[in-house]
Design goal:
The protein has 489 residues and is α/β, with parallel strands linked by helices. Helix content is 37%, strand content 17%. It has 18 helices and 17 strands. It has a seven-stranded mixed beta sheet, sandwiched between helices. The two termini are 43 Å apart. The structure holds cobalamin (B12).
Length: 489
């Protein structure tokens, strides 16, 4: 069967991590590998590059079109993509899957979509293909939310969570034409690797543990070593929580070294408390890459702030993690949350903490109720009608306590204190010195886009545009500004 898998353009890559990161559609590569094993003809089209969906549908004449929906901010774009596909191929079966689709499917219940996958794709799509091929009723295909003449209904769940070794390696060849376009700030091209999935913790702002019931699944050491050995030299590890299982992680580090794996750059995501007590493990991992960065959620600069969310760790652990990581030569890319209820003093406390501990490489996101979290359920009524593209953790979703104008000034000032401000300590020329000459135009483009976050108008215009949109049902008509992000067109 011809199957086309689409990674849509997210529609909003303007702020936060959006401008720096464009990584391969790893979830689709695993799904594709599962389908190739069953003898299907599979194409992955990454619509962040040309050509568009219509061309791919005409070229591949698919029986099934699978569309991935990773982030809540992509819902509207995913529906738009499904409608475009439906127009060119009325007979194709259109299925949507991916984190945001599984965590909260309401916005995807559109007439252009035939089903939404409620679990990981490796078992679901092959079962769907088989049912379509044999004319078996789709109600028997597991883990679907299915559109029927009687409305949307759930099919039975998978008997157990899919083991990650069911498909040991992703079909990376299917995206090789875009490899040079995948990047993470200084590194281009970049590879995305997954060694484990899920998280046993219970942070109130995160939708991952809620979706996977706090489970944590691991790939086998042999599969991960093979994946590392055959991938390129700049790697972002997609695991929700790296180093979670110290004995297995130690074994993995040793196996990678034994295989001679050494990368130019590695980036992993982990927790402060885990790092603060895992110095030996981090020491074992450090020689595996020349530069080794860690994404760490500090969330707040005070225990008072941390007590307002469920994080189950404190500022003491944040600082201990910084000490452990720095003493071993790791780079720290922290993230702090900013609450729309903040007073001026809260911003100052954050700025002082960042300066005192040298955490200028951090990012600053707005505490946002993401679909799939309890906080979304609690705030649902006040979020009704907002464009999904605004759920990027940089858009104000309601009026801040300080008033939008003052809040946006302080938020932009927070970003101005980060190393991304090219008018600050690290100039554009310093960034350019860190990349190869061929990558200078790319780097200039990325850093220029990033400067929008240093300006209060960016956040304020976006907020005003959204409010106008909810009041009138149409976008800001100012032709000089993007209706979503308020940036000059
Ligand atoms: C890689 C990643 C990114 C990358 C790449 C995204 C991109 N645009 O290319 C970067 C770093 C850029 C990124 C950015 C952001 N991200 Co992100 N990201 C992830 C991460 C860590 C891993 C995803 C991944 O590749 N996993 C590995 C693959 C193998 O698994 P998978 O994608 O889940 O695929 C499986 C299934 O989902 C399913 N499947 C997938 N696609 C399909 C399709 C079909 C048809 C079917 C049937 C099945 C299926 O089968 C696959 C195989 O089992 C997830 C965490 C997560 N657990 O999802 C967060 C996550 C998706 N991101 C999140 C967030 C919040 C963001 C940001 C807003 C953060 C920020 N500070 O700015 C930005 C938004 C950027 C933007 N404007 O677009 C949240 C989303 C929450 C939500 N409900 O919306 C997550 C869940 C992290 C979290 N813990 O909260 N992100």
């Amino acid at each position: 069967m011809n199957i086309l898998l689409l990674r849509p353009h997210p529609g909003n890559e303007q702020l936060g991590l959006g401008p720096f990161f464009r990584v391969e559609p790893l979830g689709l590569e695993y799904v594709a590998a599962a389908l190739l094993n069953r003898g299907h003809a599979v194409t992955i089209a990454d619509l962040r590059f040309r050509p568009g969906a219509k061309t791919w549908v005409r070229r591949t004449r698919p029986r099934i079109v699978g569309i991935s929906c990773l982030h809540a901010l992509e819902y509207d774009q995913v529906v738009a993509t499904a409608r475009e596909v439906r127009k060119v191929s009325p007979e194709a079966f259109i299925l949507v899957g991916g984190h945001a689709a599984m965590a909260y499917h309401g916005p995807l219940e559109d007439d252009s979509i035939d089903a939404i996958a409620r679990d990981d794709g490796e078992e679901v799509i092959p079962a769907l293909a088989e049912a379509l091929e044999k004319g078996i009723p789709l109600q028997g295909v597991p883990a679907l939310r299915l559109r029927t003449p009687d409305g949307w209904l759930d099919t039975p769940p998978l008997p157990a969570r899919t083991g990650l070794d069911l498909v040991p390696l992703p079909a990376r060849d299917l995206v090789s034409r875009h490899r040079s376009g995948y990047h993470c700030l200084l590194f281009k091209p970049v590879w995305l690797i997954e060694t484990a999935r899920g998280c046993p913790f219970r942070c109130s702002f995160c939708s991952v543990w809620q979706l996977y019931d706090r489970t944590y699944r691991e790939r086998s050491i042999a599969a991960v070593v093979e994946d590392f050995a055959t991938s390129g030299d700049a790697v972002f590890v997609a695991d929700d929580l790296f180093w979670n299982n110290p004995p297995r992680s130690l074994e993995l580090a040793r196996a990678l070294k034994k295989r001679g794996v050494f990368k130019r750059w590695l980036l992993v995501q982990s927790r402060t408390d885990l790092i603060s007590r895992s110095a030996d493990l981090l020491e074992e991992w450090r020689p595996i890459a020349k530069d080794f960065d860690i994404f760490l959620g500090f969330e707040f600069a005070t225990d008072r702030g941390l007590s307002g969310i469920t994080k189950d760790t404190g500022v003491k652990e944040s600082l201990a993690a910084v000490d452990v990581a720095r003493s071993l030569g790791y780079g720290i890319n922290g993230n702090f949350l900013i609450d729309l209820d903040w007073e001026e003093e809260d911003f100052r406390e954050l700025w002082n903490f960042v300066a005192a501990h040298g955490l200028q490489r951090s990012g600053f996101t707005l505490l946002t109720p993401l679909p799939g979290t309890e906080s979304y359920r609690e705030n649902k009524s006040r979020l009704e009608g907002l464009p999904w593209a605004d759920f990027d953790m940089h858009h104000l979703l309601w009026e801040p306590k300080l008033g939008a104008e003052r809040f946006c000034e302080l938020y932009a000032e927070t970003w101005r204190r980060s190393i991304l401000n090219t008018a600050g300590d690290k100039k554009l020329t310093d960034w350019l010195r860190q990349v190869r000459p061929l990558q200078i135009p790319y780097m200039i483009r990325v850093m220029r886009r990033t400067q929008a976050m240093m300006k209060p108008e960016t956040f304020l215009r976006a907020y005003t545009a959204t409010r106008r949109l909810s009041a009138t049902g149409r976008a800001d008509t100012d032709p000089a500004a993007c209706p979503r992000c308020g940036r000059p067109a």
